[in-house]
């Protein structure tokens, strides 16, 4: 299982507030930790954090895990002090009412609750509909516009007021595993490879703004100009009720990292990943990706003259909810797979 220091880092990363465009808190946590074992680490103009294990004149491998999460943004305050908000990324409106939230201001976290009309006073037609975003609000307990605006500014961001928790011996739950789990993997791979003789240069990136258009991966990949790019993200698990395996594929929690196959994926890199998994007895799963994956892999592949790209994902239940659930065993095996792949690379055989 994951050791104490990495687990503490993982928990701290998940507990950071980092919606797209406001990733600074999480990026600083990632940089402080990852900078201890990389030769150089930097934050680019876009906010991506890049740690490098350099090897002169070698192939460049880019590992990308996006560090942003979905959330809310303060949009308007009414005369009674209630806060109306917009979504940052793809929130599920079914789950929004009744949440406690943390609003991140310039100086502190502010606790609030998302309210709506009680079910008792809804008309029959209203009960059958999902509340739209303009029909819910954040209540921080203030009684006027002036009181709220002394605390909260337009454009402040918020997330559900939940964090990292251990469910049982290997399952953990929290918000933002999509994709701070991937950012964690990138940092941990760099740590475990540091100090070793590597066949390639490894550029690990905590990318930003994935949830609103894969933006950080696009700019960081352009700057790095890698030969090989691997996006580490999460994949829809289908081992719970209501998931249609005929449409999505079969993905189970605890059965290993998910390796995508399709036009977004370089065939040679895919084969090498499968080969590494088999040689090291690492369990893995394969999903079909018949079009652009909607992950950082998509824009990495299209960078400059093109990049040999792969996508490795951690199986996840309940994506884009405050109760995302993963297995630490899958996280460990994802780290093992990427390490094995990198250590076996030979530019003369690519």
Task: Please give a quick description of this structure.
This protein has ten helices and 17 strands. With 350 residues, it is α+β, with helices and mostly antiparallel strands.
Question: Could you characterize what this model shows?
Answer:
By secondary structure, this protein is of the alpha+beta class. It folds into two domains: about 5-70 and about 175-350, Zn peptidases (Aminopeptidase); about 70-160, Elongation Factor Tu (Ef-tu), domain 3, CATH 2.40.30. It is about 30% helix and about 25% strand. It has an eight-stranded mixed sheet, sandwiched between helices. It has a six-stranded antiparallel sheet with strand order 5-4-9-6-7-8. Strands 10-11-17 form a three-stranded antiparallel sheet. Helix 1 runs antiparallel to helix 5 (about 175-195) and helix 8 (about 265-280) packs across helix 10. The chain is globular and about 70 Å long. The protein starts with a helix and ends in a 7-residue tail after the last helix.
